[in-house]
Amino acid sequence: MGVEDYHVIELVGEGSFGRVYKGRRKYTGQTVAMKFIMKQGKSDKDIHSLRQENEILRKLKHGNIIEMLDSFETHGSFVLSLSSPK
């Protein structure tokens, strides 16, 4: 999957590392939170750490933690697709 598999609907919030958008999976209609973490200004070590954190998040399954549905990279960002809070 990639960003082309989603409709980005609207900006929800913004922080020092990136932005969170409300999104929708094109093929299922599922509403998601899409977190875009900018690569610009990050060192190679930071990029490596982000990739490791993504792998840890992918494996986490707990009722009190928002589930990561998908993650991928674009040229300028890491993108996390997260289950939308109820």
From TrEMBL:
Coiled-coil region(s): none
Enzyme Commission code(s) on record: 2.7.11.1
An example molecular function term from Gene Ontology annotations: protein serine/threonine kinase activity
Keywords: ATP-binding, Kinase, Nucleotide-binding, Serine/threonine-protein kinase, Transferase
UniProt enzyme class: transferase
Reactions performed catalytically: L-seryl-[protein] + ATP = O-phospho-L-seryl-[protein] + ADP + H(+); L-threonyl-[protein] + ATP = O-phospho-L-threonyl-[protein] + ADP + H(+)
GO cellular component: cytoplasm
Residues annotated for ATP binding in this entry: K39
Keyword Nucleotide-binding in record: yes
Pfam family, one: Pkinase
Protein kinase domain span: 6-86
PANTHER family in UniProt: PROTEIN KINASE RELATED (PTHR22983), SERINE_THREONINE-PROTEIN KINASE 36 (PTHR22983:SF6)
Protein name per the record: non-specific serine/threonine protein kinase
